[in-house]
């Protein structure tokens, strides 16, 4: 998959000539959830139909970071590198990452189309019904059609809903904050994942019979609500079942110590994996974090958590 970074005014790799024609899916695509997948799938189908290459255009950072106007802190379901990894898995051939700046935000809809559609040799544009562009979001997908002058085709994807309401990144964020991993996974079409690296911890788990991998998450990743989870972990290109504790280890730590830890007890695993890059897939929140009155009660609870995770994965289906 080819990734091209664009900035307005254009600062392009001079060796990159836009002689290739593209069928483009455009949007922010945080999470690359089922709604986004419908947009991307259409762009891929149009690419095949027109015998041109598929492409996705996304933006970085989130517009609200540049424009302000949101009180709550924005977190990404898929930080940029993770988003690119997911797009590659979906078979996208090209990704344009447009740097969202104050200058870019001031572009008129007409200029956006000229610089980021026509000048890139885009022959078909696909986006969701609510995609807007240009200064103050004045441009809509109807504008995209009106200004095409026959130079590119346009497909507008209708609202994608489940039984409840529109599939959206906001809903997924709310589920993640509440630890509702199965609900998030249904909208994502896959388990929520956090990439990271295995680092040295306090090694207390091995002394009580439950060794854990201490995970330092990739910068910008969102960590779900504290508690104990049934997870899968990707280590050296193989997925293993596990039990993950996210929290502040109240049984051992001073309650004033607010350093969050992510520890995974990997089932049927005994390798030394310090320094390995891993991914943690979050499937089910088993319970909230709590303080135990001693080691034995903690060990008994971990055994219960482990068995619950084993039972969960034995019957799991998305």
From TrEMBL:
It comes from the Bacteria. This is Riboflavin biosynthesis protein. Pathway: Cofactor biosynthesis; FAD biosynthesis; FAD from FMN: step 1/1; Cofactor biosynthesis; FMN biosynthesis; FMN from riboflavin (ATP route): step 1/1. Keywords: ATP-binding, FAD, Flavoprotein, FMN, Kinase, Multifunctional enzyme, Nucleotide-binding, Nucleotidyltransferase, Transferase. The lineage of its organism: Bacteria, Bacillati, Bacillota, Bacilli, Bacillales. Gene3D superfamilies: HUPs, Riboflavin kinase-like. It holds the Pfam family Flavokinase. Belongs to the ribF family. GO terms for molecular function: FMN adenylyltransferase activity; riboflavin kinase activity. The keyword Kinase applies. SMART domains: Flavokinase (SM00904). The keyword Ion transport does not apply. Signal peptide: none annotated. Its EC number is 2.7.1.26, 2.7.7.2.
């Amino acid at each position: 998959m080819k990734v091209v970074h664009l900035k307005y005014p254009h600062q392009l790799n001079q060796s990159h000539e836009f002689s290739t024609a593209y069928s483009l899916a455009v949007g922010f695509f945080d999470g690359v959830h089922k709604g986004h997948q419908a947009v991307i799938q259409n762009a891929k189908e149009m690419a095949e139909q027109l015998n041109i290459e598929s492409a996705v255009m996304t933006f970085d950072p989130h517009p609200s970071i540049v424009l302000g106007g949101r009180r709550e802190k924005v977190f990404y379901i898929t930080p940029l590198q993770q988003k690119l990894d997911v797009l590659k898995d979906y078979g996208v051939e090209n990704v344009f990452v447009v740097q969202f700046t104050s200058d870019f935000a001031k572009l008129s809809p007409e200029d956006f189309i000229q610089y980021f559609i026509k000048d890139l040799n885009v022959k078909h544009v696909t986006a969701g019904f609510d995609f807007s562009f240009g200064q103050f979001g004045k441009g809509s997908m109807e504008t995209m059609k009106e200004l095409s002058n026959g130079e590119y085709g346009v497909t507008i994807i209708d609202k994608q809903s489940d039984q409840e309401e529109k599939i959206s990144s906001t809903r997924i964020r709310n589920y993640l904050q509440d630890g509702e991993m199965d609900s998030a996974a249904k909208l994502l079409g896959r388990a929520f994942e956090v990439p990271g690296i295995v680092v040295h911890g306090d090694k207390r788990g091995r002394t009580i019979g439950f060794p854990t991998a201490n995970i330092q998450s990739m910068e910008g990743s969102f960590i779900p609500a504290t508690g104990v989870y049934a997870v899968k972990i990707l280590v050296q290109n193989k997925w293993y079942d596990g039990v993950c504790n996210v929290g502040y280890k109240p049984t051992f730590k001073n309650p004033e110590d607010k350093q969050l830890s992510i520890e995974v007890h990997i089932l049927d695993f005994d390798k030394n994996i310090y320094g390995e890059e891993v991914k943690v897939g979050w499937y089910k929140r088993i319970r909230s974090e709590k303080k135990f009155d001693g080691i034995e009660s903690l060990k008994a609870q971990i055994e219960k958590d482990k068995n619950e995770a084993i039972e969960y994965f034995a019957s799991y289906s998305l």
